Every structure is written in structure tokens, then in C-alpha cells.
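Limitations

Structures in this collection are predictions, not experimental determinations, and the ligand pose is part of the prediction. Treat each record accordingly. The example that follows, with zinc ion as the small molecule, is included so readers can see exactly what is and is not provided: the inputs are given verbatim, and the output is the predicted complex.
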Amino acid sequence: MFVDAHNHLDFFKDKEKLEKALDIIKVDNIVTLGCSMDIQSYNFTKKLSKDNRNIIPCFGIHPWEAHNNYKNLDLFDEYIKECKIIGEIGLDYFWIKEKEKYPHMKSVFEYFLKKARNYNKITNIHTKGAEEEILNYIKKYGLKTPIIHWYSGDLETLKKLIDYGCYFTVSVDIGYSKLTQEIVKLLPPNRILTETDGPTSLEWVNGKYGYPDEVKNIVNKISIIKKYNYDEIKNKIFKNLKTILMKEGIVI
Ligand SMILES: [Zn+2]
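Predicted complex:
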């Protein structure tokens, strides 16, 4: 089994491309955490998961959507209770430049963290430009199994997140970013996961439309950096996801 611990299936806008992605997830056996941007996006992924056992829908309000979703936070409670994993949630001071959005981003994020603590949920967290602050929030709410999505901050904060017990999804820029390669060198093998982050992320990196089987390339590149053979690291990554899910009583 391969692992795509952070994808966005609603980003496959074209029906044919979506069908192709879903086929790949089935045929290549890729356990996929389908993150959401908001309620609509969660419902879309939830529907897809009914016909595809490899898809686990995750519910969250993405930091980019927080300013549209900060009023009536308690609307989210039933979805948080229902979902197996919370995500995508987080903070972003890199891509979001409008400072007036920051208070909404924080209040939405903290709402989800409180719920994650109360309901004992796994979290899939976006940390762009807010790494240190996220670390403090993780500690404040005592999160049990945070998955840090596509970490790209400084290495000192990375070490603190590793010490805390976080897991990390290595993404599609691994062959292209020196920083990502440095990060992978520092990550303990028992904390590594892989992700594709939707079709547009690979496109952003190298212009190619990103299907879920891109995880195979990522596994290959991790195996080279960590000096493991391909199957060994592939199996380790699957075992890591299984360990996280089992902590929360989810069996795959
Ligand atoms: Zn994402």
C-alpha cells in the first residue's frame, strides 16, 4: 500500500481527470487522506469515499477559507464529530498577505484544536510561515497525533516538532527543493508520510498535472536520501500511517 496523507480530491475539477485519479487510488492501492477546504469540499470527498475504500475523508476549514467561515463555528461540530481525521486546518502568513484575515484564521484554527482535543482526533495541519506559532498551539492543546503537512519552515522548529512527536508528509517538491531534502534528512523514518496535495501542487513545482501515483516518485526520492531500499521505505511509510490511525482506533 502507498500513502497519500494529504490530497484534495475536489481540486480535480475535470470529470475525466477525477475518474483517472480515483482509478489510480484504487488500482495502485494508495490510502488517501482527502482533505477539505470547507463543508462543501468535505461532502464531496465523503461521497467519493463511499465507492473507494482507500479514501478517508477529512474535515477542516482551510486557513485560506477561514475568513469565509468564522461566523457560526458551532455549525462545524457535527462534521468534526463525524470525521475520522480533522484537516486541513492551520495558519498561513506566507500566502495570505491580508492582515485583516489573520484574526479569523486564528479563531477558526483554535476552534478546531479545541475540538480535536475534546474528541481525540488526528489533525492534518498547514503551517506555512507560522511554524513556531503552530508548535505552541500543538503544545497548548496537547494534540496526540498531529500530521504536519509539507513542512517548509526553519530546521530548529522542525526539530522541536519532531521532539513533540509530530508526523510529517513529504510532498511533490522533494526532487526540486534543497530545503525539503534537508528536512527529509532530519526526519526519523518512523515519522515520515507521503502526500501529493492535489493535482495543482506538482503543477506549481514542475508544470505537470499531479495524479496520486506521484507518491511513487516521492517514495523513490526518500529512499535515496534515507539510504533505504524502495520497498523498505514504502512499507515503513504505510506502517507509520497505520500506527497513527490505530492510535485513534481506525483500522486499515
Ligand atoms: Zn492542502
